[in-house]
Amino acid sequence: MFKIIAIVTMLIDHVGLVFFPDQIVFRLIGRLAFPFFAWGIANGYAKTRNVYKYGWRLLLLALISQPFFYLVIDKEILNICFTLLLGLAAIFFYENKLKNKFLSYFLLFIVLILPFIVPLDYGLYGIIMIMFFHIFKNKFVIPLQSGLTIVRVFLLPQSFWQIFAIPSFFIIHYFEKYDFKINKYLQYSFYPLHLLLIYLITLI
Predict the structure, then answer these.
(1) pLDDT tens, 104-124?
(2) Alpha helices, DSSP H only, in 48-183?
(3) pTM given for the model
């Protein structure tokens, strides 16, 4: 259910960005999407049998999607899949999976400063949101994630519409037990395919 909400609201966001840039309602609806993707990464980490394969799939998806993202959304930043990948890496290093505490925390530090070096969609805010979902599970998710969003708006006033992401935290908290799986091929292919479709429509 959450992944379907994420996909639909992301599609609405991108359709509004490309075809209806003066209609802010599309962008406001789109703010609901990212928390569901962030929760999905944290939840996926907890359930995956092989985190390395999970990470490679995200990297491949990020690389495939980047040309379409460049053509449709933004020519100056990396797409959201790179942010999700770094969020997964942050959880991995936080859990000290390398069995070397110093190396794990050093690499976690590298992951957290990367958004200041390489421009990413959602940047550090996105990575921390993913970590919060993992570290605190479903406890305190509403105040923590809402507080994180408000801090981002305070630091970056131009991103005021991120406030509209907050309802997602309530949905995740109260309806997590009703979530269900969707086809993994649809899940992974939708992001690059919807960007490609939007690009083709702009050509027409």
Answers:
(1) 999 999 999 999 999 999 999
(2) 51-72, 80-94, 101-117, 123-135, 141-155, 166-175
(3) 0.92
